Amino acid sequence: MPPSHPYKDIPIANDAPFELKPSPEKGWGCFAKTNIAEGSEIYIEEPLLVVPRTSYKAAEAVVQAAANKLGDRDLRIFSWLRKNGDATKKYTYYRDALSDSYFEIKQSKAPSHLYVVHSRFNHSCVPNMQVTHNNVQLKSYAFRDIMAGEEITFSYREMLYKTSAQRREELQEEKIFVRDCRACVPGNPFQEQSDSRRRLLRGLKFLRTGEDPEERENSPDRYPIIFDAQLKQDIANKRVAIYLEFICMLLSACLSEKEGFLGYYKTIGTVEERLSEFVDTLGTANHKEIARHVLSQETWWKKFCEACKLYGRVDANDDSQIPWPHWGDILPVILRTWTP
């Protein structure tokens, strides 16, 4: 590590469970100093710089004006930012320093916020950290156990429902390069299964909610997931069997666990809570009993297997007759995503 590298001087709280140091082929990154348990808070940060949204042409003057309002200490920190962490590559333009280190906080009137520390965490399509915000304050959490020495990463974009080809295309457009991600490197078993899992997760979300997370408004879908136009319309109109949502949620949890994303949903509190709420939507007493038994199982796979006992049943509160796809069609897809 070059002793003169400015990143050595970036102020990080003494009790932070990570350190900033060079990351192979990624410039610099953040690495765990100690074991970090799932659900643990990793860091809290306020923005160094807040810049109103503006045109690219006007951005240089706007960012420079905002930087000039910083105190001496913060201006020094801003000047330490480097392209890809290379000590010799200072930014020529203020706007480029901002564009490489900002987060958009959609609820804020000034959407470009520069966070010096969180911007040093690298991207991964199989991350171990989730970043949330409270107004303009960023908070990050471990959504699985992180071992000492392991690099801490988060996903720069919503990637759960994209295949490796889709992710590569999107990341390259934004000049984000991923070289060692096991979900992206072609030819390895995890990557092949990962693509199948993420396609299936996308389809399950559509079956469950009627919304395709990858369908773009007023744009042709380059990666369609449902080809039957009538089924797609029925699902969009939410005319699907009530048990379908329960089974879809549990199978999604199984797939997310295999993909390494389940902890993310547990961190934001959406899995168990939604499953418990589902039990209350059932109108048939026997179905409620089965659903409660399902939730008492130890593993997500056991929960899913027990939930399949609801397959084909019509609930008292069910006004739909659209069935789950035939098991002969769906099981080969599930098995392609699975290794014991």
From TrEMBL:
Gene3D superfamilies registered for this protein in UniProt: SET domain (2.170.270.10)
Species, as recorded: Hymenoscyphus albidus
Xref: CDD domains: SET_SMYD (cd20071)
InterPro entries assigned: SET_dom (IPR001214), SET_dom_sf (IPR046341), SET_domain_protein (IPR053185)
Residue ranges occupied by any SET domain in the UniProt entry: 16-157
Name of this chain's protein: SET domain-containing protein
